[in-house]
Design goal:
37% helix; 11 strands; alpha/beta; 6-stranded mixed sheet
Length: 211
């Protein structure tokens, strides 16, 4: 069943453009549009889609999607309460010796290629809390020196990077955004010792959303 409450702010022209970017790179594939509620409580900023997301055409699917849904439920939210998009909207992959593809972090050229789309989605929502999940989205906003290990669980109010297509460089916005950096929801699954830290950050976000 199609959930009509889950939509994308991307126009058909933007979606066509996004698919064209993917085709320019040998190690990118597919395209997944950002999506969620049109009046979200928070914007969830991720890295890039993986194999399952490309297969199904939606962000956070499969095991990572189930983990996200459990995490949202712990915050008293559903996917209708958030809008999800990533730094890159295609799947970055590498091919191993076996010939199989595996996910990887997007490189700088790929981040810049999708920067206009990321900026477009960001400005469609005014005065929304930006919740970054991991370093990729945090550094897309605040630069390469920003580290989730240092900034997680803190409410920041900062200018963010906006891509200038004319110069091919990032510039800082005049207006500031509220940003709440988090480790990725699956982080504590891979690193059990970090679970208390991840849980405490979620508790802080839950309290913040009550205000």
């Amino acid at each position: 069943m199609i959930n009509l409450s889950i939509q994308t702010v991307l126009t058909p022209e933007w979606i066509k453009w996004g698919k064209e970017q993917s085709e320019k790179f040998d190690n990118l594939e597919g395209f997944v549009a950002g999506e969620g509620g049109m009046n979200p409580k928070i914007l969830l900023l991720g890295e890039a889609p993986g194999a399952k997301e490309i297969e199904l055409g939606h962000p956070f699917q499969g095991p990572s999607g189930k983990e996200l849904d459990r995490w949202l439920d712990s915050l008293g939210l559903t996917r209708e309460d958030v809008y999800i998009f990533g730094v890159v909207s295609a799947r970055p992959f590498r091919v191993g010796k076996s010939g199989l593809k595996s996910d990887r972090r997007p490189n700088n050229k790929e981040v810049k290629a999708y920067a206009p789309m990321f900026d477009y989605e960001l400005v469609q929502f005014k005065d929304k809390l930006l919740v970054t999940m991991g370093n990729a989205s945090l550094q897309r906003l605040l630069g390469k020196d920003a580290k989730v290990g240092e900034l997680h669980g803190q409410l920041l109010n900062e200018s963010v990077q906006h891509f200038n297509e004319a110069t091919g460089k990032f510039e800082w916005t005049k207006n500031k955004y509220d940003i709440f950096p988090l480790y990725h929801p699956s982080y504590s699954k891979r690193f059990k010792a970090m679970k208390p830290v991840v849980d405490e950050d979620s508790r802080k976000l839950r309290e913040l959303l009550k205000k």
